[in-house]
């Protein structure tokens, strides 16, 4: 019973059985979903559907959950509004599987008005079908035509109402938010992260595996680096397992969440730097959202005509770097992707420093979050805008997990040094990832920045990226940055003092 006196609905009881409801098209085919939204579609030169939504990013400022926010009768009323609408109007309903791990897999039930079946089409590209007859763990009802934007979440019962937004990302994250919540409840931690398996040849010609995980906000290079093949030749390989949300479990397994595909940013998608993703995004099976497409179907990934947050839902099977599995058996290396211009290309972190990096979540604002502030500095705990529950507890849990598992952690700058004095491109970042996986990077403790940084990296002139050579008044800026970081971490009452003291 909630403190409002209202009984929160559960996924099993909130709505009638969709297989027996006259107003529901249950589990329609891909062809049907596309046909239902034909009036909203532009067909691309590749034969794929493209749509333009009214809302073009997540509405974080209109999102409330019953754990972290004041949640009153009006908020519960939003939930009931969505449920009532789904009972009375023509709807499409899907049951999809969130994850594959035997101990961390859930069923998400998704409702959307038939006219907006294009959003359901995107959902089918990302999540695999659930087993027939499976009871849902999560329920999302999305009503784009509602006259007020309101996203309301009941984390403990797994119910989400998305009102007034037709952005597909709201549907996707409604399930992934709860997937991460369940991971924490089971002693692990949900991560806004990509994962990959790197297979390398040893000096004895044997093969060894290195598991890598990348935490980062959208548009900071997380997907690009997760999917990159690291220029390895057979029998060596780099395999993308998961692109966006994972669960770090106490035994070191990293459970994936999206079994079918990826929801990638397309602005600036380059066939030379991102060949695997480009090929998948230009396959007829992709679904494009808010990407510039002219009258004859030509696609322009460089254009921000609709938004710089253009998206494509792509299938794993058409992504050459993707593996068949989505779970990483064991993680060895964790990377925090930043765009902070006073940070080196890479630095190695102690468990406490890594937990501080997790809490700081330093990056830049992107068009996926708040387009009006894109490019501004930002801090998001865990680079994860979808945390449910006290954020300080997340930092403590992260430190304990990586300490118990003896993981190597790094902060990786994928942006530039100083005022664009020295850019750190994909080539440099990929070289670092490959050599870190090989264990060929030599380290030194830098007194200037009080961090462990590379002394040498095969294939990379690391001295050319000395931060102090590219940042004016570097010592002053670093001192000010540390003071800002300490002040920020002090806001989290639950955070262990040892993590606060590890500010770098």
Would you summarize the structure shown here?
The chain is an alpha+beta fold and 504 residues long.
**In this structure, how is the largest beta sheet organized?**
8 strands, mixed
- Overall helicity: 10-25%
What value does the Rg take, in angstroms? 23 Å
* CATH topology-level fold name of the largest domain: Phosphoenolpyruvate Carboxykinase, domain 3
Number of strands: 30
Query: What structural class do helix, strand and pairing data support?
Result: alpha+beta
CATH class of the largest domain: Alpha Beta
Oligomeric organization of the protein chains = single chain
Low-confidence stretches: none
Could you characterize what this model shows?
Helix 1 packs antiparallel against helix 3 (117-126) and helix 7 packs antiparallel against helix 8. Strands 1, 4, 5, 6, 7, 8, 9 and 10 form an 8-stranded mixed beta sheet that branches. Strands 14-12-13-22-26-23 form a 6-stranded mixed beta sheet. The protein has 504 residues and is of the alpha+beta class. It has 2 domains: 18-36 and 59-166, Phosphoenolpyruvate Carboxykinase, domain 1, CATH 3.40.449; 189-261 and 315-504, Alpha-Beta Complex (Phosphoenolpyruvate Carboxykinase, domain 3), CATH 3.90.228.20. It is built from 11 helices and 30 strands. The protein starts with 23 loop residues before the first strand and ends with a helix.
């Amino acid at each position: 019973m909630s403190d409002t006196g209202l009984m929160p609905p559960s996924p099993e009881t909130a709505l009638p059985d969709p297989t027996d409801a006259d107003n529901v098209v249950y589990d329609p085919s891909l062809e049907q979903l596309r046909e239902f939204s034909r009036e909203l579609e532009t067909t691309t030169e590749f034969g794929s559907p493209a749509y333009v939504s009214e809302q073009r990013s997540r509405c974080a400022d209109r999102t409330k959950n019953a754990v972290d926010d004041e949640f009153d009768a009006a908020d519960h009323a939003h939930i009931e509004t969505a449920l009532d609408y789904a009972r009375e109007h023509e709807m499409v309903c899907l049951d999809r599987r969130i994850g594959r791990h035997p101990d961390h897999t859930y069923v998400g039930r998704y409702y959307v008005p038939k006219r907006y079946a294009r959003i359901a089409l995107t959902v089918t590209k990302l999540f695999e079908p659930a087993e027939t007859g499976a009871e849902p763990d999560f329920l999302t009802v999305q009503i784009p035509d509602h006259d007020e934007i309101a996203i309301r979440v009941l984390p403990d019962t797994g119910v989400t109402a998305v009102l007034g937004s037709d952005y597909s990302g709201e549907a996707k994250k409604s399930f992934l938010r709860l997937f991460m919540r369940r991971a924490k409840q089971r002693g692990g931690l949900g991560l806004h992260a990509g994962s990959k398996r790197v297979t390398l040849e040893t000096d004895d010609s044997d093969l060894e595996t290195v598991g890598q995980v990348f935490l980062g906000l959208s548009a900071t290079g997380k997907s690009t680096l997760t999917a990159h093949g690291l220029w390895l030749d057979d029998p060596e390989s780099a395999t993308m397992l998961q692109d966006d949300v994972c669960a770090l479990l106490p035994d070191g397994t990293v459970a994936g969440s999206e079994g079918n595909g990826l929801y990638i940013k397309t602005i600036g998608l380059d066939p030379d730097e991102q060949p695997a993703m480009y090929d998948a995004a230009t396959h007829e099976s992709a679904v494009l959202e808010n990407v510039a497409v002219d009258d004859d179907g030509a696609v322009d990934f460089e254009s921000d005509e609709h938004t710089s947050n253009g998206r494509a839902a792509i299938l794993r099977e058409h992504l050459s770097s993707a593996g068949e599995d989505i779970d990483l058996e064991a993680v060895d290396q964790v990377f925090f992707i930043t765009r902070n211009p006073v940070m080196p290309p890479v630095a190695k972190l102690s468990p406490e420093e890594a937990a501080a990096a997790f809490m700081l979540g330093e990056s830049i604002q992107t068009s996926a979050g708040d387009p009006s502030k894109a490019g501004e500095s930002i801090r998001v705990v865990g680079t994860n805008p979808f945390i449910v529950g006290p954020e300080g507890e997340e930092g403590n849990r992260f430190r304990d997990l990586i300490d118990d598992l003896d993981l190597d952690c790094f902060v990786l700058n994928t942006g530039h040094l100083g005022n664009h004095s020295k850019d750190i491109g994909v080539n440099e970042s990929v070289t670092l990832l490959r050599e870190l996986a090989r264990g060929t990077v030599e380290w030194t403790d830098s007194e200037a920045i009080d961090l462990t940084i590379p002394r040498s990296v095969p294939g990379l002139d690391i001295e050319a990226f000395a931060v102090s050579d590219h940042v004016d008044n570097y010592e002053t800026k670093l001192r000010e940055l540390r003071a800002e970081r300490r002040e920020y971490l002090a806001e989290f009452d639950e955070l262990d003092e040892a993590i606060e003291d590890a500010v770098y």
